[in-house]
Amino acid sequence: MTEKLLSELTTAAVGGPARKYVRAETEQEIMDAVAAADAAGEKVLIVGGGSNILVADSGFEGTVVHIASTGIEKLDIPACGGANVRVAAGHNWDDFVEYAISQEWVGIEALSGIPGVVGATPVQNVGAYGCEVAQTISQVRTYDRETGQRKTFALADLKFSYRDSILKQSMVNGSPRYVVLSVDFQFTLGNLSAPIRYAELARQLGVEVGDRADSATVRETVLRLRAGKGMVLDSADRDTFSTGSFFTNPIVDDALLASLPDEAPRYPVTDATSGAVMEGKTKLSAAWLIQHAGFDKGFGLEGDSAAIAGGRASLSTKHTLAITNRGGASCADLLAIARTVRDGVLQAFGVKLVPEPVIVGESL
Questions:
Q1: Which ranges carry the FAD-binding PCMH-type domain (predicted)?
Q2: Per the count of CB atoms within 10 A, which of 40, 43, 170, 328 is most buried?
Q3: Do residues 172 and 274 both lie within one domain?
Q4: Last residue of a domain, which of 67, 84, 104?
Q5: Which helix (H) or strand (E) element contains residue 32?
């Protein structure tokens, strides 16, 4: 166990020291590290790829368990067709997506380029370009800190919804009850993608929404789109020093929807597993709300009259959803931008934006 700066473990490159740091490379090491910290009455913070977490500048007064387990295992389940695969929690997500495409496992190609590890994906039901992991996950194996035993969640028990799950709901101050050990996926087989559900991606592929395309081409196209938005990690591009999309797309009821401008984009809300449309709920574009509340790309940059973080943090210069570390930013700097944007959108439209990353030791 050693002290380690959280800024070294997070894609936003902010966060003070962890009092204790443990790198866990196997399921047993994960369980032992968490159990030991719990037995000692210490706070526990689980870190994987560090792409969806902001830690206070004061650091974390407890034990940080860094999930570093890797491995992909093909399961033999006679009753299930296609490919059934178990992936270790610490396995790099995009490496897994690339491997899945090479094996002609269909369903996650549109999730290419997302930073982080496999074990983090079911926690907030990671999604992009019309796809969510809920569509391919079959079960999640965890360590239950309350019982000290392994617990397996079947798909129905995970209670997936937009950027949410029972795993996320169990968190207290960023610390989970259930620590993910591995994730099982069930894939259909082939070299054509799942149906394309996102209009921008369909246009880039030259297909209609609902059509399929070559999976490898879908991956290449998604990577290009993400890179153009600063959403693929690149040490030479400060726009990628972020937690990705800082705010989720808000879901509102019909009463609030009626008060919004007609030109505000509207999207149906669907059940994460069945795909059924949910009546009386509509998803809005957080990016549109942010921009039309007066916050443009690069808001907060040095020289901007609104450089509230001294130019050290700003909205991405490529799109308005990411809050970026321009160099030398603190957690407080990023949160200053976030609060200004959140409050501005609330004042302009009456919609309260909700942060997507886990915020530890601070509050928005």
A1: 14-190
A2: 43
A3: no
A4: 67
A5: helix 27-39
In this structure, the answer to whether residues 63 and 76 fall within a common structural domain is: no
State if pTM tops 0.85: yes
The arithmetic mean of pLDDT across residues 67-73, rounded, is 98
List the catalytic residue out of 51, 245, 314, 330.
Answer: 245
Q: Rounded to an integer, what distance in angstroms lies between the CA atom of residue 307 and that of residue 130?
A: 34
CB-hemisphere CA count at 13 Å for 1? 15
CB 314 within 8 A of CB 299: yes
Considering the domain boundaries, does residue 208 fall inside one? yes
Same domain for 77 and 52: no
Catalytic residue among 25, 29, 356, 362: 356
From 163, 219, 226, 312, the catalytic residue = 163
63 touches 41 (CB < 8 A)? no
Contact 56, 15 (CB under 8 A): yes
Q: What is the pLDDT of residues 190-207, one digit of tens each?
A: 999 999 999 999 999 999
**Cα separation of 196 and 178, whole Å?**
33
- Split into its structural domains, the chain has a count of 3
231, part of any domain? no
pLDDT digits (tens, 9 = 90+) for 270-316: 888 778 888 999 999 999 999 999 999 999 987 766 678 999 999 99
Q: Is 226 a catalytic residue?
A: no
Residues paired with residue 5 on neighbouring β-strands, in sequence order: 17
Helix or strand or coil: residue 118? helix
**Tell me, what CATH number does 258's domain have?**
3.90.78.10
Is 312 annotated in the active site? no
Collect contacts of 263-272 with beta carbons under 8 A, ≥24 apart: 264/288, 264/289, 264/292, 264/349, 269/162, 271/161, 272/125, 272/132, 272/134, 272/135, 272/160, 272/161, 272/162
To the nearest 10°, report the CA torsion of 244, 108, 235, 246.
0
**Domain enclosing residue 348, as ranges:** 238-360
Best CA proximity match to 158, nearest among 197, 121, 114? 121
Residue 123 lies in a domain: yes
End of a domain among 161, 191, 226?
226
Q: Name the pairing type of β-strands 105-106 and 178-189.
A: antiparallel
pLDDT value at position 307? 72
